[in-house]
Amino acid sequence: MPTSDALPVILLLSGSLRAGSVNEAVLRTAEAVAAASAAAGSPAPVAAVRYEGLAGLPHFNPDEDTDPLPAPVAALREAIAGAAALLVCAPEYAGTLPGSFKNLLDWTVGGTEISDKPVAWVNAAAPGRGGGAEAMLRTVLGYTGAAVVDAACVRIPVDRGTVGADGTIADPAVRERLAGVLALLAGAAGGAA
Asked: Are 15 and 55 in contact (CB under 8 A)?
């Protein structure tokens, strides 16, 4: 997991395993926006770092939620503990969160790493979609004790055709909204990891 030496880290959690996912594109774009903002001398720069271990997490088993944790789970919890805030972008599947992402969240319930940590999400679904995933995300985050930053929880519908070859979204309006989300999360975190 990459880290930042001087900047507070916002950990980016994608709820999709799909290659070319628009949710992943949103987070890649947030990562690029954070880097550009820091390079431009932003008064409140952050490092946005994508978590890439979703596919490697074992199925949640309460019997294994003890020390020593399975290595992928320990790495997840360490990444969360080291972050100042979390930003989630997850699709809706069959009216709720995808099972793989719900599995990630289940592994966080038994730890304290998310407790009181600022968390927000971006819903990239088409208008009228994604509400079931948002509702489930809010419910599960409630069990973890996360500090949901409502003002930073936004809908930014993304069409797959707007994702560039580099996996990011060039639309200035999308980038501006993501910059606002990152700023709200950084503010909620107090600017420190």
From this structure: no
Rounded to whole angstroms, the Cα distance separating 48 from 13 reads 10
* pTM strictly above 0.70: yes
CA distance 145 to 30: 25
> Is the distance from CB of 180 to CB of 29 less than 8 angstroms?
no
Strand residues in the chain grouped as ranges (E): 9-14, 47-50, 85-89, 118-123, 147-148, 154-155
Q: Which amino acid is at 87?
A: L
pLDDT tens column, 7-27: 899 999 999 999 889 999 999
d(CA 45, CA 8): 8
Cis bond before residue 58 (omega within 30° of 0): no
- Measured CA to CA, the distance from residue 58 to residue 55 in angstroms comes to 8
Query: What whole-number distance in Å separates Cα of residue 175 and Cα of residue 122?
Result: 12
User: HSE of 39 in the Cβ direction (CA atoms, 13 Å)?
Assistant: 7
How much is the CA Rg of the chain, to the nearest whole Å?
Answer: 16
99: helix, coil or strand? helix
